[in-house]
Amino acid sequence: MRGKAVVIALVGSAVAGVLILLVVLGVPFTMRQLQRQVERGLSDTLDANVSLEGLSVAFRPHLSVSGTQLRVRHKRRPDVDLIAIQSFTLTGTFRGLLRGGIDEANLVGLAITIPRVERPSAGERPEKARARPFGKALDKVQVGLVIADGSSLTVLPRNANGHSRVWSMETLRLHEVRVDRAIAFDTVLTNAIPPGEVVTHGTFGPWDAQSPGATQIEGQFTFDHADLGVFKGIAGTLQAHGSYNGSLERINATGQTTTPNFALTVGGNPVKLDTEYQAIVDATNGDTTLTRVDAQFGHSSLTASGGVLHVPGARGRELVLDVTMKHGRLEDVLPLAVDTPRPTMRGGLVLSAHLELPPGEPDVIDRLRLKGNLRISDGTFTDPGVQGKLRTLSLRASPNDDAVPQTVRSDFYGEFDLNRAALHLDPLNFDVPGAMVEIKGRYGVRNGSLAFAGQLWMDAKISSAVGGWKAFLLKPFDALFRKDGRTFIPITITGVRANPSFGVDRHRLFNKDTPAVVPR
């Protein structure tokens, strides 16, 4: 039986070889008839509509088949070219062709377009594929190497108002290509925003004819020398690597990034920023869901989740994040936002915030919206003069001088709202030994302007706080400044960060229940 099978196989191969020779020699077929057979066979294999403008066969210096203007269109989206090739050349040997193998394919002008096509509903019968022997034969054809440099991949949006996602592939190599199997690939993509090269390799397929967007993909990538300066208000060069899997409509990605010189231009002080992330990318609309982002800079770390989402009617996408920092340091965060040679303050930082960065042309700091609450523990000012004034305040506010340490540490806590480069605090509280300050108002991030109002509470009476001969004069007024068992002084803070001006709100001094009014 085995010998008989071998004989049948040999005879079959010989017959197939004779038929191929008859086809390529045009006996009794014409080249046009061969072209039609190829179109029909590809249509059956890909379950699509295929057209081909020209086809030719050459035997020298090697066996090759060339064609022009190959187009593949989805049966339910005849307006879209799934695959468009300006010209192609297939090369191989006669013996390899008999075995269903092609050594190499060179494609010029390859453009792949992935439309949004839903699978047929349960009650809808998909079009029955035509059963043609030539089409079945193509299912088994394998191409050893496909070279398609200068190609493009376009993913169409789900709705007419969306923007297409386009990737330019400087180089593209496909290995051991068969339509019924996953295809190994490696390519170099040009990323538009931020600009840079993405080198990736993995597997793609097998092709899902009913819903091309459901075609499976997986692989690894590296992204180097990405210039973040294209985002106004941000600077730095990003490097990233990671892996991905899923379908074109839903790609699960994990990776790490490092930016050794990340900076906000409003602060100008660069820091090394490292992140690890897990994300879901919808290539049909470009939306990215950030399921988890862990960031590390200096001795601080934060966790975030959210997404990069399309905004109807706007060019670009909005970044939306919920941010939690449980282990932060103020000296790591302040240099990003304040242009000073060294941090103005040190201390532990805990915050929880909601971040929104809409698309647009202005700098990041002018578009950023950040709202939440914070707590600073054991805060100390790096300026000896400021730290000295704070200790003086604590000494005057405390009935017992021995309770005031040489280095006064403050605890801050409150709510904040950063919107269009203006930081609103409502309220912010901070404690020092013997005193507590509660203020509300706004701080201009760009110009350092101050406009705050609030109150100072002290354990000591006003006469004790002043001391000296003035204490004797103010002693009858101690009761005037007392409220709920503590000394109450309504205050205002105006001016600029480099030269603040402190004042007493006399109106509220005599009307203690009057709410504080923030100075204009």
Structure, explained:
Strand 15 and strand 16 form a beta hairpin. The relative contact order is 0.05. It is built from 10 helices and 28 strands. It has a 6-stranded mixed barrel with strand order 4-5-7-9-8-6. Among the domains are: 31-118 and 133-271, no CATH class; 417-520, no CATH class. The protein starts with a helix and ends in a 10-residue tail after the last helix. With 520 residues, the protein is of the alpha+beta class. Helix 2 (31-46) packs across helix 4 (133-139).
Poorly predicted ranges = 1-28, 129-135
* Overall average pLDDT: 80
Give the beta-strand count: 28
Q: What's the overall geometry?
A: rod-shaped
Largest sheet: 6 strands, mixed, barrel
- Beta-strand proportion: over 45%
Whole-angstrom Rg = 35 Å
Distance between the termini: 100 Å
Structural class: alpha+beta
Count of alpha/pi helices: 10
Strand order of the largest sheet: 4-5-7-9-8-6
Proportion of residues in helical segments? 10-25%
Secondary-structure blueprint of this entry?
Layout: H1 2-25, H2 31-46, E1 49-51, E2 54-58, E3 63-74, E4 77-92, H3 94-98, E5 101-108, E6 111-114, H4 133-139, E7 142-147, E8 151-155, E9 165-177, E10 183-191, E11 196-204, E12 216-227, E13 234-235, E14 237-247, E15 250-264, E16 271-281, E17 288-297, E18 300-310, E19 317-329, H5 330-337, E20 345-357, H6 364-367, E21 369-381, H7 384-397, E22 410-419, E23 422-432, E24 435-444, E25 449-458, H8 462-466, H9 468-474, E26 482-483, E27 486-496, E28 499-504, H10 506-510
Parallel strand pairs: 5-7, 6-8
Antiparallel strand pairs: 1-3, 2-3, 3-4, 4-5, 4-6, 7-9, 8-9, 9-10, 10-11, 11-12, 12-14, 13-15, 14-15, 15-16, 16-17, 17-18, 18-19, 19-20, 20-21, 21-22, 22-23, 23-24, 24-25, 25-27, 26-27, 27-28
Helix pairs in contact: 2-4
